[in-house]
Amino acid sequence: MTTYLKDYARFATIAEMDAAAEQHLSLHWDELTKSDRQVLDVIRRYSVKYGAAHLKHGTIEEATGKSNVTIRRAIRKLVKLVIIEKVHYIRPVMSGLGANIYIILPFDDHRKMNGRDDDKNRIRTRQMNNFQQTSSSF
């Protein structure tokens, strides 16, 4: 019945998913609260079987002991930090809203992406220095 979750999986093995979750945690440790980390852990634990988790907020609340507002805030933060993806799910039988599907995303070191900006800044600095040197020689 829940084999549809395999379509959402981003990892070949559970070990890869766990490694990605750990890398996300280590990169964003200071940005995440204890509650955020607990929510991610619940999503990770429920994702073990199929690679994605189909969870209601209430299920996460019971597992963490946190309020609904805290759970929603944590999920928003995890999505914003590109740690998880949230898929809105509509139940095919009742044509109604169901629990969301949460997917832990592969780790992509965002610091490498920032390196391009550093290169651009270095080039701009060199260009400004060259311009200042040529301007001062006149």
Structure characterization notes:
This protein has 138 residues and is mainly alpha-helical. 55% of the residues lie in helices and 12% in strands. It contains five helices and five strands, in the order ααβααββββα. The chain has helices at residues 14-28, 34-46, 57-64, 68-80, 110-136; strands spanning 53-55, 84-87, 90-91, 96-97, 100-104. A three-stranded antiparallel β-sheet has the order 1-5-2. It has a two-stranded antiparallel sheet with strand order 3-4. Helix 1 packs antiparallel against helix 2. The chain starts with 13 loop residues before the first helix and ends with a helix. The relative contact order is 0.16.
Task: Please describe the structure with a list of short key phrases separated by commas or semicolons.
5 strands, disordered C terminus, 138 residues, 5 helices, mainly alpha, globular, two-stranded antiparallel sheet, three-stranded antiparallel sheet, single chain
